Amino acid sequence: MKLHRVTITFNRVFDVVRFRDYEKPAYSLFGFEISSGKYYGVEIPGHPRIEAGDTVTALLSTPNNWQTLKGWVNHQTREIAAPTAGASGIASVAMFIAAGACLYLTWLRVSSLMAVPFFIGGTYWLRYAISAAAIRKALQQHGA
Taking the CA of residue 19 as centre, how many other CA atoms within 13 Å lie in the half-sphere pointing to its CB? Predict the structure, then answer.
């Protein structure tokens, strides 16, 4: 995944709403204004400090598209706001263990196909964990 780095200073920040639920890791939605325009409904992982005057270096999946924000490092606080690999790594390991158990219990039977969804799920969570680790590493290198 190619990430595009951009450094900005918030002129104005508005409508900051923080969420924490069971279906998705904690995240914040907010709007902001910079010299090039206003942006609404931007999502950032976690509950980082978001204040007018803060300078951040952000990683975007698509250039100039703040809806593809992956994370940032705040220059004032050195705080990194990015997805974490912890829970997804654990989910991946659990899925691969479940797939292994299915294969062990049903080896050489048609029912051994029950392991396929677990392998797919494990691969999905492993890919997410690797992506989250890459985003954090890129931000840590810039923030150091």
Answer: 14
Intra-chain end-to-end CA distance of the chain, in Å: 22
Cβ proximity of 28 and 51 under 8 Å: no
Residue 143: the pLDDT is 60
Report pLDDT for 105: 83
Q: What is the pLDDT of residues 69-93, one digit of tens each?
A: 999 999 999 999 988 888 788 888 9
Which CA distances in Å does 38 have to 1, 30, 41, 42, 77?
26, 11, 10, 11, 24
Q: Is the dihedral of CA 96, 101, 104, 105 positive or negative?
A: negative
Whole-structure pTM value:
0.77
Max CA separation in the chain (angstroms): 64
Residue showing tokens 């590493």? 137
